[in-house]
């Protein structure tokens, strides 16, 4: 006969685990705490910000510094060498519909150098420089196969080209491995080793953003690309890096966050789904060391993610979620977009308002400065998502009428 004491102890143990899991990972909207948020329009000195000049030269500057110091770390731009080498070319790619270029972007500093491979398909139908989508790819390289023998919905390059856009991508392993044991081995140890000694130094996500900026450096040199119509896209962890790219680099016309969740578009103070503690525990190499001090202390953050979206203004921001991706907190992502784009509306006087409540599934909202949709399904980047991004860009660039 089973020992009753052991049964009781087992029940208590599993009850404890269940309670602990509920405490740490909340999926119940009624359990979201009250959370005051930092005001985009009030500086750290308590001064009200109401003009474009004050926003761009005061408030935006301090917001970026707060994110550098507390979340993503610095993004150093110093380099001694920047060069572009066309290593492969096929002017009849995609059955003659695209011009494929594979470019090695070489960066040197203090005697060290790294190369980052950029894959670029340009539509042959283009009669003028093409707008471009850049995907920050952290998944298996087969997702971005330049031979197109393997085609994945994660990067539907053929569909992008057919719509008249250039399709570009790079793999994060060229700048910083998505691995806690090896993330230092590329640009951090080779180009910017001093960052590793800093509590607010660059880490993985910042390195990926740095890579996206180098891709834009190249786009500005290619006469077949309209670099003023560039969109940076990232999914999940790549979406976090995409938002940081758009905040840091004003050359991007559109910044797209796909299911980016905690440390991306979602409000940290909601403590819904993935938390600051969980993400710092599982992925300590993504964020700067200072972010650890906010584990279970989100209210002490001098910022929240709506300010990251605000810092991108007046350039366009698109936030997308998935209905079954509660870990990424779709409502928190949307609220962040609504609150962050107040700057677009109130400082830059841009037209249109996002609905107050989270829109219905697969009911995209496209405004001149912001886009949103929540897709049916799980955590992924799909052809449906890409269609919405291309529709948004076509409308923003006036391509729909051409």
Structure notes:
This protein is α/β, with parallel strands linked by helices. It has one domain: Rossmann fold. The protein is built from twelve helices and ten strands. The protein has helices at 4-24, 52-72, 93-96, 157-162, 187-190, 204-219, 237-248, 276-282, 305-310, 330-340, 342-346, 383-397; strands spanning 81-92, 98-109, 112-123, 130-137, 166-171, 225-235, 254-258, 316-322, 365-366, 370-375. Strands 1-2-3-5-4-6-7-8-10-9 form a ten-stranded mixed beta sheet, sandwiched between helices. Strand 4 (130-137), helix 4 and strand 5 form a beta-alpha-beta unit. Helix 6 crosses helix 7. The protein starts with a helix and ends in a 5-residue tail after the last helix. The model is unreliable at 1-23 (pLDDT under 50). It comes from Cyclobacterium plantarum. Residues 105-343 form the 4-O-methyl-glucuronoyl methylesterase-like domain. This is Acetylxylan esterase. Keywords: Hydrolase, Serine esterase, Signal. InterPro entries: AB_hydrolase_fold, GCE-like_dom.
């Amino acid at each position: 006969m089973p020992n009753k004491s052991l049964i009781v102890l087992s029940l208590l143990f599993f009850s404890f685990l269940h309670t602990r899991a509920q405490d740490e990972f909340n999926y119940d909207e009624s359990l979201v705490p009250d959370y005051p948020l930092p005001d985009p329009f009030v500086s750290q000195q308590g001064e009200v910000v109401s003009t474009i000049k004050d926003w761009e030269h005061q408030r935006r500057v301090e917001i970026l510094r707060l994110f550098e110091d507390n979340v993503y770390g610095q993004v150093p731009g110093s380099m001694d060498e920047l060069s572009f080498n066309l290593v492969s070319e096929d002017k009849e790619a995609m059955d003659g519909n695209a011009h494929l270029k594979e470019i090695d972007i070489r960066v040197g500093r203090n005697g060290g150098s790294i190369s980052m491979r950029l894959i670029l398909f340009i539509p042959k139908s283009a009669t003028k420089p093409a707008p471009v989508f850049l995907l920050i790819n952290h998944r298996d390289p087969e997702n971005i196969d330049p031979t197109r023998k393997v085609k994945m919905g994660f990067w539907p390059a053929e569909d992008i080209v057919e719509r008249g856009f250039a399709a570009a991508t790079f793999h994060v392993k060229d700048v910083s491995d998505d691995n806690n044991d090896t993330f230092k081995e590329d640009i951090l140890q080779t180009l910017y080793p001093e960052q590793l000694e800093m509590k607010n130094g660059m880490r993985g996500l910042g390195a990926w953003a740095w890579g996206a900026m180098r891709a834009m450096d190249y786009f500005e040199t290619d006469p077949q690309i309209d670099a003023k119509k560039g969109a940076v896209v990232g999914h999940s962890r790549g979406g976090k890096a995409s938002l940081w790219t758009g905040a840091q680099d004003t050359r991007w016309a559109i910044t797209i966050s796909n299911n980016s969740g905690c440390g991306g578009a979602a409000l940290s103070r909601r403590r819904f789904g993935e938390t600051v503690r969980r993400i710092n525990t599982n992925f300590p190499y993504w964020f700067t060391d200072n972010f650890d001090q906010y584990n279970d202390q989100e209210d002490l953050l001098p910022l929240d993610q709506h300010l990251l979206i605000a810092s991108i203004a007046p350039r366009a921001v698109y936030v997308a979620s998935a209905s079954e991706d509660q870990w990424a907190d779709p409502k928190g992502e949307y609220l962040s977009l609504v609150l962050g784009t107040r700057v677009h509306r109130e400082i830059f006087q841009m037209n249109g308002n996002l609905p107050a409540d989270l829109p219905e599934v697969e009911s995209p909202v496209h405004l001149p400065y912001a886009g949103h949709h929540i897709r049916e399904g799980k955590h992924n980047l799909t052809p449906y998502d890409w269609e919405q991004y291309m529709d948004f860009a076509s409308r923003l660039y006036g391509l729909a009428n051409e």
